[in-house]
Amino acid sequence: MNWWQTGIIYQIYPRSFQDSDADGVGDLNGVIGRLDYLKALHIDAIWISPIYPSPMHDFGYDVADYCDIHPLFGTLADFDRLLAEAHSRGLKVILDLVPNHTSEEHSWFTESRSSRDNPKRDYYLWRDPAPGDGPPETRLPNNWQTHFGGDAWTYDAATGQFYMHQFHRSQPELNYRHPEVLPAMLDNMRFWLDRGVDGFRVDVIWLMLKDEQFRDEPANPHAAADARPFDRIQHIYTAGVEGIHDLIRQMRAVLDEYDERMMVGEIYLPVEQLVTYYGDGDECHMPFNFQLINLPWNARVIGDYIRQYEGALPTGGWPNWVLGNHDQHRIATRVRKETEFPGRNSVSGDPARLAQMLLLTLRGTPTCYYGDEIGMEDVPIPLEQCMDPAALQQPELFEVWGRDPERTPMQWDASPNAGFTAPEATPWLPLAADYRARNVAAQADDPASMLNFFRALTELRRAEPALNRGDYHDVDFGIDDVLAYWRTTPGSDWYLVVLNLGGASHLIDLARLGIAEAQMMLSTDPARVTPGIATAFSLAANEGVILRLPGSSDTDTQDGYP
Ligand code: GLC
Ligand code: MG
């Protein structure tokens, strides 16, 4: 098995993790200073969101130079030191690769837009205004829309053509039908792989190719009456376009030139389409599985999805799970809102803990989002302070779309600015109001804290083959609110995970599985005595437990299950 299969990935949003130079923005030296913290989380790899030179219109997802470091974050020498320090602790480093678009400040684009006959003109997608009357800037080439709201075309008066962008207008899209573009991007990958980077998270990988004929996208018959224009069309000519798999195979081939490197693709697609991005074991090592972000917090629904996903995986396709990232509302906020019953959201009934138990016991690589280990929540940011271009461009959808709330500074301690930046500095986004109570230092000293619970989970996962590589078998206790499954592997102890997503307690009787007793290893509720022997027990609202079935070590034909 590879490190990216048995290991745990932890996403760092570098602007918000740790500032070392009092400018209010996190940086590489800040991350270096926190590597021991990360190591003690029992994670295996860090994925760092973009750190390249950028005008920061989309906070680094607008890359102006693929082969350097933004001075805000440090220097290439700082990066090399981060890599060496991480590797010396046994931590892998995954960079964010943003190949679909560049910044308008990338030299390719400044050349491209300089004249129609510039040799780099067709590195990007330029189109004439549509025929007709009216000023050229109003005659859009087609009906394509941006994910951030608005038309996907921006008119460039100097050369009289439009360029295409599916995100902010400062993020022009590269033309992968031009013979030089992919080779140039592959060289950018080699630049970092040669330095020792362990892999890439590839931004919007399924969008990289666009329809060669630039056809209008058809209406979406399922769109709600008040849907925004983007959702009123079906994205058949801008996403998953024919030829994309071949392009991804060529990217994968570059990773395969090196030992043990990996690529995880950012892909928001339904499961049947998602799994095609494994290819024949020759595309993404993993296409991100984001369904836990979209599904309601419901045991039956999630259990059905796990079965569906497990069933859809191609032979050799390794699963993965995600609860949140820098584009999604924090899981703690989401589940704390979704669970309604007396006593909820107390330490013993915190669904944020239950969500982490789910993520860290499923079969497949978990990707954790910074701060989730201490239960950080979305921080409400008023529109006047909003930084996120996606929200600023569609203020009417600001509540739904704003991504600042999940990007706020890490809460390290109770000092002014939470130890994220110097006390006199101004953090680039405001801190959570509750940071003096919810922070790493306070939780480190509290055996009942979320942080120590998270560390117990990751430690167990790391130690136990059944959890980090074993099979998945679902278990039905016949209770709608209870999601339960076995994790097993021949020759090792087996684990039974029982999660109560509902608001009432339930009796869990192991006899139902033909088991006399098991060992209670860990509960979301710090008050439950662990380890201890369990036979039948009451599982509280929002409680999850992990049980061990010892004595299964020598055989995979244990009585009972699976
Ligand atoms: C991805 C990133 C997101 C960014 C977008 C455009 O979805 O995760 O943050 O805005 O791509 O690069
Ligand atoms: Mg800084």
UniProtKB/TrEMBL annotation:
Task: Write down the CDD domains for this protein, in alphabetical order.
Answer: AmyAc_OligoGlu_like (cd11331)
Give the source's domain of life in one word.
Bacteria
Annotated EC: 3.2.1.20
Q: What protein am I looking at? A: Alpha-glucosidase
Which keywords, in A-to-Z order, does the entry hold?
Glycosidase, Hydrolase
Q: Which InterPro entries is this protein grouped with? A: GH (IPR017853), GH13_cat_dom (IPR006047), Glyco_hydro_b (IPR013780), O16G_dom_2 (IPR045857)
Entry's family note:
Belongs to the glycosyl hydrolase 13 family.
Asked whether the UniProt record includes Hydrolase among its keywords, one would answer yes
EC class (word)? hydrolase
A single Gene Ontology MF term assigned here is: alpha-1,4-glucosidase activity
